[in-house]
Amino acid sequence: MGRLGSAEAGEVVRVVDSAFVRSWVEEIARSIEDRRDFLTQLDAAIGDADHGVNMSRGFTAVTTKLSEGAGDGLAPGPLLVLVGSTLVSTVGGASGPLYGTAFRRAGKALGEEPQVDAAAFGGALRAALEGIQQLGAASEGDKTMVDALAPAVAAFESSVKRGASFEDAASDAHEAAEEGVAATVPLQARKGRASYLGPRSVGHQDPGATSTALVLAALERVAKGG
Ligand code: ADP
Ligand code: MG
């Protein structure tokens, strides 16, 4: 995360720059690798046992592209668009287009600015959520990634409005996402493959909500400096 000058209260003004986005994406990729088998096991219970594999394929393609220089010189927005496009083109299954759209929309919301503040980043998270909901038509309570992302976006925005630091907003967003994940367990799935199970989807944690919480956990860690 870039640092800019000093604020009035003597606090460092923090902004999101390309290096921050890159670190975030690399941290997501590491954590997906770590939890790949767990995500796949969750999907084995209520889906087709490929969520970990799908996410791993997508984020491996992303980190490969970045290491080859595809993101060099890009502002945070275009960098996130590159991440999203790579996910769309490499991940089969529902989660590829959904996560791909989320990152692309977040990137578009940031525009071409080389540095953006916490409020703008909150707007990008909001745009990601809206993109997922437009594409997948899921509402909160349908037992999908929306159940983790919607409360996380709301928590991030309300923390920023209260004047919290970026780190604290990211921490609040992560916590809200984890609560959202836990809340998926008793739900019956109404969207995606798990919905085919009807009442048999009850009692299982949603894989996509779980990977969304990993994305926000990675944001918190990177915001806190790794
Ligand atoms: P697939 O279901 O095609 O095998 P994945 O296993 O990679 O794809 O992803 C499954 C996850 O995708 C689910 O756990 C759920 O969180 C998410 N998902 C599925 N359909 C939707 C939808 N319409 N809206 C939001 N998220 C969805
Ligand atoms: Mg699956």
- Which strand order does the major sheet show? 1-2
Poorly predicted runs are: 4-13
How would you name the oligomeric state of the polypeptide chains in this document? single chain
Number of helices: 9
Provide the gyration radius in Å: 17 Å
Q: What this model shows, in words?
A:
This protein is mainly alpha-helical and 226 residues long. Helices cover 65% and strands 4% of the residues. It contains nine helices and two strands, in the order E-E-H-H-H-H-H-H-H-H-H. The protein has a two-stranded antiparallel sheet with strand order 1-2. Strand 1 and strand 2 form a beta hairpin. Helix 1 (18-34) runs parallel beside helix 4. It is globular. Bound molecules: adenosine-5'-diphosphate and magnesium ion. Magnesium ion (MG) binds next to loops.
